[in-house]
């Protein structure tokens, strides 16, 4: 039976997830260096696209630089290249011991990932927020509080999607392949590979019926000022709606997966 633990238990899990990110600081530093290097390459490509044009699809050159900086800053916090942690516990049978903990399994993993995301932002993301403006002309958000809310919702929405993908391990002995396909779709649909504004209108309309823009693109467009006023609030409301919907769906799929779970000796 799933139980509702005290909030302090989830906070403790989040703290452990946060502290774990400091265990291998050299790896985090070199990861940050890699992110800055590829960020520089991506900025060069986008600025070449602009040429002498003042704008491309509503983006100025400064917006494009800011877009690249943000995608590199949050690449680790949002696990945009994939996340298999829950999947591994299912395949190894470790999920059986997790079920003995005084947590709701979805809440436990959400708390753990929140701590992980915060830790990754501190060791990799925050330093890059200082580095990019020193080298390039990066824009700062005009609506800091609303943008912060959008950042948190982007993480939450992305986590719910990643958890759903990991639940495929309940039905597949080789769900890693499903995950790789899902991360490729995520990278395209959330706007990591290219700003969604650069895509054809028909493609953006299709993406509008999916949760992927809420996982990154909405936050970027708020940050650079492409969405202001009512449009900004509408974007955040849409992020919230997709986040709640995906968490509900993740809870339903998790419950079904646990019903068919078979652990050797269990």
UniProtKB/TrEMBL annotation:
Keyword list, A-Z: Membrane, Transmembrane, Transmembrane helix
Signal sequence extent: none
InterPro entries, per database record: ABC-2_transporter-like
Membrane-spanning segments: 29-52, 64-84, 148-171, 177-199, 236-255
Pfam families per record: ABC2_membrane_6
Taxonomic superkingdom: Bacteria
PANTHER family per the UniProt record, alphabetical: INTEGRAL MEMBRANE PROTEIN, SLR1174 PROTEIN-RELATED
The protein's name: ABC transporter permease
Organism name: Deinococcus cavernae
Lineage: Bacteria, Thermotogati, Deinococcota, Deinococci, Deinococcales
């Amino acid at each position: 039976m799933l139980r509702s633990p005290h909030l302090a238990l989830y906070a403790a899990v989040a703290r452990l997830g946060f502290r774990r990110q400091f265990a291998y600081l050299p790896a985090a530093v070199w990861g940050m260096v890699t992110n800055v290097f590829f960020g520089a390459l991506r900025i060069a490509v986008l600025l070449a696209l602009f040429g002498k044009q003042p704008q491309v699809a509503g983006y100025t050159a400064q917006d494009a630089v800011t877009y690249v900086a943000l995608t590199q800053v949050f690449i680790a916090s949002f696990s945009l290249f994939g996340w298999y942690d829950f999947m591994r516990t299912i395949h190894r049978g470790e999920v059986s011991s997790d079920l003995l903990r005084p947590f709701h399994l979805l809440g436990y993993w959400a708390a753990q990932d929140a701590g992980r995301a915060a830790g990754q932002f501190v060791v990799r993301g925050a330093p890059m927020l200082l580095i990019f403006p020193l080298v390039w002309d990066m824009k700062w958000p005009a609506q800091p509080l609303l943008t912060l809310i959008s950042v948190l919702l982007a993480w939450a929405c992305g986590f719910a999607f990643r958890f759903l993908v990991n639940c495929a391990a309940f039905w597949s002995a080789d769900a890693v392949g499903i995950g790789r396909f899902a991360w490729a779709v995520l990278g395209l649909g959330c706007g990591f590979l290219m700003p969604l504004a650069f895509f054809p209108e028909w493609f953006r309309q299709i993406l509008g019926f999916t949760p992927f823009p809420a996982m990154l693109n909405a936050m970027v467009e708020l940050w650079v000022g492409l969405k202001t006023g009512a449009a900004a609030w509408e974007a955040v409301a849409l992020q919230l709606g997709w986040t709640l919907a995906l968490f509900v769906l993740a809870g339903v799929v998790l419950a079904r997966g646990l019903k068919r779970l078979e652990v050797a000796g269990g």
